[in-house]
Amino acid sequence: MYHLEELNQLEQAITASPDNVYIRFLLIQKLEAYSQYQAQLKDHLDALLRYDRQHIEAKKMLLKVYYTQKKYSAAIILGEELLDAENLGAPEKILLAKAYLKENNHGRAQELYMEVVALHPDRNDEELDKAFRMRETGGDDTDIGEDSDFMEKPNINFSDVGGMQGVKKEIDLKIIKPLEHVELYKQYGKKVGGGILLYGPPGCGKTYLARATAGEISAKFINIGLSDILDMWVGQSEKNLTALFDKARFNTPCVLFIDEIDALGAKRSDMRQSAGKNVINQFLSELDGVDKNNDGVLVIGATNCPWHLDSAFRRPGRFDRIIFVPPPDAQGKEEILKIMLTKKPTKDIDYAKIAKNTKDYSGADLEALIDIAVEEKLEEAMSTGVPQPLTTKDLIRATKKHRATTVEWFQTAKNYAMFANQSGLYDSILDYMKKR
Ligand SMILES: Nc1ncnc2c1ncn2[C@@H]1O[C@H](COP(=O)(O)OP(=O)(O)O)[C@@H](O)[C@H]1O
Ligand SMILES: [Mg+2]
Fold first, then answer.
1. How many whole angstroms from 322 Cα to the centroid of ligand 1?
2. Residues 116-155: tens digit of each pLDDT
């Protein structure tokens, strides 16, 4: 019973000089080693902190004691104080996350736990894993499954895309042709691969065009948002990214469409720098095809917020072809309207007139416009009992009920263009705005 003797002596020393923080902490460390002394441990921690309010190690121990004693809200208050002062290590953060979980604050629990695991992948906690980890690690079991919702075989092609002559041509030259003539390109020492990035206001057909690109070359189409990948679980994002790229490589020819490419940049700030950087680096090396063959994989990224884009993406060989997808011009709008109206009853539509009356409309806006007009026709048909075809007048009337959604985007873009036009990213936007 050597330890009892030692504890007794320390107790005596402290009784003699209760303000000796050093000796008291020695005793505390001894007590901590034995689970039967929880009550004494707590008393001594309280006493020590009365003499030294800033004793971080003591506070960390107290956090553990609170947790063991199931005093979760006390643990949280203390834990948050330590966390704010950046005085928590991984084990204590896990403990705090568990306290949140016990108190049903799942959001905070998950956030904190993800942060820990992102930085220390080997630190895991069974209880938290069970609560938050969506998929098991290990095995060949990839997260992006064989017949996942992510993959499809599109039934549209370039002929279903109105306008966009320039963009279509660029895609054809820069990614379709190389894919069809891999050998030829190689003979000339040209690397096939890399990605293109589409950016522009929402609803102007980025996703639609990517899907049509896959259809154009009878390729498979994988459509995933970058935030999906990140959300799958920060600590496993890198693994998920690899699985995603592997799936594309396994299903060539394949268009791998990654939407919200800006999410990486945006997430970076709230994820703690290094974790976000890991994901970015992993993404870039997958894109570069460093140790794997990306032949037959076309990567198309898209973003509505190019200003949040990490500049690392713009280096050569990556998203080095960055293409602005503007709202449709008059001719584009006419084409889009024709495509959208083919299967609807219409009469003598003056496409040019509608195009002229839909300033700043995106493709999605035109779709909305038709929806509104159709609904009114339906209502009319219900009351008269006689269905009538859509006319120019119906569509023009509908423009009063729908406002163009691209205007706001250009406002924002303009601000960024003025203050941060690095690498001429905004030149196309400014050009477009001048002509508008
Ligand atoms: N150029 C276009 N031709 C035909 N339809 C278009 C075009 N642009 C947009 N659309 C229609 O608008 C919808 C929204 O476009 P989407 O590709 O989702 O825009 P974005 O990805 O740029 O936000 C599409 O599903 C499509 O029906
Ligand atoms: Mg989209």
1. 18
2. 877 777 778 888 887 776 433 333 344 444 445 578 899 9
- Residues 209, 273, single domain; the answer is yes
38 in ligand 1 pocket by Cβ < 6 Å? no
Residue 429 lies in a domain: no
Confidence of residue 235 (pLDDT cuts 50, 70, 90): low
User: How many folded domains does the chain comprise?
Assistant: 3
Q: How far is CA 151 from CA 71, 131, 154, 159, in A?
A: 48, 28, 9, 22
Q: Ligand 1 mean position to 396 CA, how many Å?
A: 20
CATH of residue 369: 1.10.8.60
- Domain residue limits at 269: 151-324
Domain harbouring 209, CATH code:
3.40.50.300
- Model pTM? 0.67
In a domain, 414, yes or no: no
Residue 231: per-residue pLDDT: 67
Domain end point (choices 105, 132, 159): 132
45/61 Cα distance (integer angstroms) = 8
> Which ligand neighbours the alpha carbon of 370 most closely?
1
Compute the distance from residue 363 Cα to the ligand 2 centre, in Å: 11
Closest by CA to 75, choosing from 51, 59, 90, is 59
Model pLDDT, residue 267: 44
Q: Given phi > 0 = left and psi -120 to 50 = alpha, else beta, which region is 315?
A: beta
Q: List the CATH number of the domain containing 80.
A: 1.25.40.10
Instruction: Give yes or no for residue 363 CB within 6 A of ligand 1.
Output: yes
